[in-house]
Amino acid sequence: xxxxxxxxxxxxxxxxxxxxWRIMGPSQPGVVGRVIALGLARWQEAEGGKQAILTEAGRxxxxxxx
Length: 66
Description:
By secondary structure, this protein is of the alpha+beta class. It has one domain. Helices cover 32% and strands 30% of the residues. The chain has 3 helices and 4 strands, in the order H-E-E-H-E-E-H. The protein has a 4-stranded antiparallel sheet. The model has no long low-confidence stretch (mean pLDDT 90).
């Protein structure tokens, strides 16, 4: 997964009913969960659910290496 997917705002978590939340977007849900567990991203409240955003550590990792 590229952190650019999160940076672009395309990774969201939506309530699909009965307390069931689904991670939606171009990235694998398990990988998104791992990125959040590593502290590179976090969930932020958004309209209709939650949106993944990069933390400061995630922004550093997203920088192209030289």
